[in-house]
Specification:
The protein has about 280 residues and is mainly alpha-helical. Helices cover about 65% and strands about 0% of the residues. It comes from Candidatus Proximibacter danicus.
Length: about 280
């Protein structure tokens, strides 16, 4: 990292990263190129796009540019973005995109965590009839975009935060980020979402306004981070217990099904949450 960037604050990083060409994961390019000429539904395409937060972001920006010329509604789901641009737009997006270096361990881990967050959010939010699960999943996916952009273009910044955490000088990711960078990576995500003029709803959900949708997205991200750190993380019962408050009619079993943990640990988590009084 160049020396002058060592002293940058959040506004400078937002201004710097907003101008960068958003890359996509190499596997996404290969998968999408293989779809040329195929008869595949928009929902199937959306499932592919959701597996790459960079691609999701590029497609959203393409869809929003197209929408602005037709004065349609904001695009707030991956399916909506796919429907806006179609397979041809997705193929064009993949063709014109530069590629991430997926050999950067931190980038690969952050990208995997974002995708897992979206998957958990989609499952959990799908149990509420009054909200769009796809919007919640999109917010969970893009909540990591600030850190992902740093890994792609200035990996020393998030690596410093990881080193701070592992040293014991910080006991939480957010604290480690603030101590090393001067801001949290979630703040960077929000700054970029605003700088790129993404739909306001996405920013509100990522910010974590006190609504069921925002809280489900936040807790899905927390659970994803905990699972990535430890497949039997003792913090997982707290995540499941917390999300139950926003999904009161959903069984514990249904909430636990969203988590990619062993059957044995799922039973342990269930036992722990059942021991706590609700309300």
């Amino acid at each position: 990292m160049e020396n002058h960037r060592l002293h940058w604050g959040l506004p400078q990083w937002v201004a710097y990263l907003r101008e960068k060409e958003i890359p996509i994961m190499p596997r996404s390019k290969l998968i999408i190129e293989a779809l040329a000429g195929e008869d595949i539904s928009p929902r199937e395409l959306a499932g592919i796009v959701m597996c790459d937060p960079f691609l999701s972001l590029r497609l959203l920006r393409r869809a929003e540019h197209r929408r602005s010329s037709t004065l349609g509604h904001d695009t707030t789901t991956i399916l909506g973005a796919v429907q806006q641009v179609g397979l041809d737009g997705l193929l064009a997006t993949a063709a014109e995109s530069v590629l991430c270096d997926e050999n950067i361990a931190g980038l690969a881990a952050c990208e995997s965590r974002a995708v897992l967050s979206a998957s958990i959010a989609l499952h959990w939010a799908g149990n509420r009839a009054d909200i769009s699960p796809e919007e919640v999943a999109f917010a969970a996916l893009l909540g990591e975009i600030g850190e992902l952009m740093l890994w792609a273009f200035e990996p020393a910044v998030p690596q410093n935060a990881l080193d701070e955490l592992h040293s014991g000088r910080a006991n939480r990711n957010v604290l480690a980020q603030q101590q090393t960078a001067g801001f949290s990576f979630k703040q960077l995500s929000l700054g970029l979402i605003e700088a790129w003029a993404l739909p306001q709803l996405i920013g509100q959900l990522v910010k974590g306004a006190d609504t069921p949708r925002a809280n489900i997205a936040r807790l899905a991200s927390d659970a994803s981070r905990h699972i990535q750190a430890d497949a039997e993380n003792p913090a997982l019962p707290d995540d499941v217990f917390a999300v139950k408050a926003f999904l009161p009619g959903v069984s514990w079993h249904a909430l636990l099904e969203a988590l990619p943990v062993s059957d044995e640990y799922r039973v342990q988590v269930l036992q722990k949450v059942l021991e706590r009084p609700l309300g």
